[in-house]
Specification:
Helix content is about 10%, strand content about 65%. With about 130 residues, it is mostly beta strands. It has a single domain, classed as Porin, CATH 2.40.160. Strands 1-2-3-4-5-6-7-8 form an eight-stranded antiparallel beta barrel. The radius of gyration is 15 Å and the shape is globular.
């Protein structure tokens, strides 16, 4: 369990220290593979799944010449058995589209994930939601 925490902290450090975008903070709701709370701070996106507890952390990069499409990379740690505190850890890519109306940003994402702890496998997950810009 200590190695999982170390890996996740290292991933968070790399993503946060490589952040270059300056933008308003956004907080909202996501539904899909992970349903819960989604926040975006500059080019860093954080998600907390509440149905099955999970935490995601991603670096987001906009495609050139368009504010509507983006990609990124990051990681996910998810609880798979709350009574035994079993977790799975994965590295993931994200591909998304977004649009803004007033102070709301609506988004949809596809997220291929390579789980490396618990069971090595690849899964395709997806979410949709909105965030309010402060």
């Amino acid at each position: 369990m200590k190695s999982i925490r170390y890996i996740f902290r290292l991933l968070a450090f790399v993503i946060i220290t490589s952040s270059t975008a300056v933008a308003a903070s956004q907080v909202g709701v996501m539904l899909g593979s992970d349903s819960g709370i989604n926040a975006k701070l500059g080019d860093i996106k954080i998600g907390v799944g509440l149905d099955n507890f999970s935490i995601t952390l991603d670096k987001v990069i906009n495609f050139n010449n368009t504010p509507y499409f983006y990609y990124g990379f990051g990681g996910k740690i998810a609880e798979i058995n709350s009574s035994h505190h079993d977790v799975k850890l994965g590295a993931r890519a994200i591909f998304g589209a977004q649009t803004s109306v007033e102070k709301f940003t609506f988004f949809v994402e596809a997220q291929p994930i390579l789980y490396i702890i618990d069971d090595v496998k690849v899964e395709l997950e997806a979410i949709a939601g909105f965030r309010y810009q402060f």
